[in-house]
Design goal:
468 residues; Endonuclease - Pi-scei, Chain A, domain 1; Endonuclease I-creI; disordered N terminus; endonuclease activity
Length: 468
Amino acid sequence: SLPYFPENSLDPAARGFISNSFLSGLSPAEMFFHQAGGREGLTDTAIKSVTGDTPIVIFENGKPKRVNIGDWIDKRLSICPDKIEHYEDRDMELLKLDDTVLIPTVDGGGHVSWGDITAITRHDPGKELYRVKTLGGREVIVTEAHSLLIWNPLIKKYQRTSTPNVKIGDYMPTTLVLPETHTITQYIELNDYLPKRKFIYGSDFHIAKGMVSEFNGNNRSPSGWWNNTNGTDFTLPYTKTSGMIRVIRRSNISFIKDGFVYPYKGQRIETYIPEKLKLNQENGFFIGLYLAEGDSSVKDGSVRISNNDPTIQKLVQNWFEKFNMNWEISSTTNKIGGTSTSIRGFSTVMADFMIRLVGNGAHNKHIPVESYTAPNEFIIGLLDGYISGDGTITRNAIEATSCSKQLIEGISFISSKLGIFSKMSQRYMKTNNLGTKNIRPIYSMSIRAQWATKFSELVNLSIPEKQD
């Protein structure tokens, strides 16, 4: 991993030197998220010294985000260079935040909450980096300047401890149950993924259509009207008023409805892709199933789920029909004789959206960032879809694997919202039954013991054989 340090630093850490590796005690899930964050009442609430590629989950501008801390800090510092405070110690730059940014945080008693980030820093990382790893499979790289929270049995509280003094067997706070934020995200807004300058949003289209009609049939609009209006009263991909008028007069616009999204170019069919996708259990199930066994093609304008179970196929069919998407089922046989059945739904808008929302290709997938602050019903649906599609149920455990580390981390993280702990691991395979070359590492999560029981109580799997 690359450390986070000033540009052109000649420090050994800047060249990737990692000093030590620690194995913690019985730490559960998601240590690195709040170890990267400020802890109000325990330390100053500045973001602490982790390497720049460390992922963190924050709540900023009313929306959840998963960001690399280095990129996020760089962006923040570049916006307000005149407000940065400079210190000689480790060549540190500090910026106090004026707006509200939340991050999962923990107090001395180990209670997790969403706390305010009050300041961020960028500085020389020091001479050494430390890789801290838990038995639960989580790890984070921190600088020697970073103080970790370590359980002190004498005072029965977590206490700041210098990283070089952390030892094998120490206990660190972890997110077993992640509380809700003050604001629950109810919808995924498609314009966060599909820009209005590249897609037609029905609500904006009809606002513009109504304003254009006020020209009383004139071909010419007032000078500068389109440039002054497009982007304020409405936002559309047309560059001139004449482009909008041409569409109104020459195209079939009867199916362009308020509240739905359409492609700017190409064939427009009468589908109902909403401008806001509700974070309910049904949509959570489809997204979870897509994460397990789905892919999309903008070129073909299709979204595909590969699954041989008739129950799953029917649920996918119903989901496509809800958006008036045409669909088809087909089966193929691979080179080792296995049969794979796929159901494809057709919508260029939906295909593009799914790729931008959760990635495409097994190693690129990740959960939607909205999941971190979504209602529990969406989380339950997503876990149902993912485990029904890609999970393995044994007598004592619920397990899933992926070549996407970010996906497994995300599934584990949102499970903690339901009070379900999972253990993560990584392994390498030399060969597989398909003869694949350059096999990627496999990341696994395992839910065991009382947490498996809790999972079965909260999540009713859609495949009866797995539920039983």
